[in-house]
Amino acid sequence: MPLSSMQRLDSTFAALADPTRRAILARLAGGEATVNELAEPFAMSQPAISKHLKVLERAGLVSRRRDAQRRPCRLEARPLAEATGWLESYRRFWEASYQNLDALLEQIKFEEKEKKAHKKKGGTR
Amino acid sequence: MTARNRETLSIAAAGERDVLITRRFDAPRRLVYDAHTKPELLRRWLCPPGWRLAVCEIDLRVGGSYRYVWQSDDGTSMGSGGVYQEIVAPEKIVASEKFDDAWYPGEAVTTHTFEERGGWTLLSLRIRYESEAARDGVIRSPMASGVAAGYDQLEEMLATDAAANANVSAP
Fold first, then answer.
1. Which CATH code is given to the segment(s) B10-167?
2. Rounded Cα–Cα distance for residues A85 and A1 (Å)
3. Which of A81, A104, B39, B142 is least crowded, fewest Cβ atoms below 10 Å from its Cβ?
4. Cβ pairs bridging A and B (under 8 Å)
5. ipTM of predicted complex
6. What is the pTM assigned to this prediction?
């Protein structure tokens, strides 16, 4: 992965680390909203919400467009998909690998048992 | 082979910077430890479907390094490596870990612990990330809580693979 997208992932993760920002993203997943509308469900001032929005914007998770007097925010799915794509493959990596290991261990146990049985038959004991 | 009881993989946040992965294996600790430290064994399991562990070099001593490179069927490769910091056979391995294209910032430290419990082995893999933000990115994403639909498919696929492998088992 090129450095630029690694840096983007860093900022995506940093942005996602905060519960308020995750709640903002969850709200935006339901559709565009203005800063006022976003501030409503939180016990937070508009400037505080704006600060969180700036972090999300920098991470490329949120974009804002001008619509007459309003500046609605919208969720940008791509960086999120990029980050979760890695996480998903990480979990999958371990699940799949450990299932391989289950099979391998079964096989080794079987081979060891065979060896023991063979020794017994050969009268080494 | 009879239907295998698939053990559940648990991934959870622990402390401030750690991710703790635990998994049980129906085998004595000695075998599970060997499978984690012998390249000829690691090559046979440490890869998801569609990938193979093309490079597996292990210098199993404190200060020794390891290097893994995976290659996918479509030609993509992914590498990781690090240095062993503590080795207590067959109980514990501590090593640094850095993926060539890490999706988390900095270097991580992994601790493998093998505990035997009545013929079973409980494997714990603790991964300590460089920062809380890096760790939280791993644990708290929507995906970390489960990709149910995708996994069902994956499980089915693996069950088929396992059945196929079982047929070409012991020589």
1. 3.30.530.20
2. 13
3. A81
4. 129
5. 0.73
6. 0.62
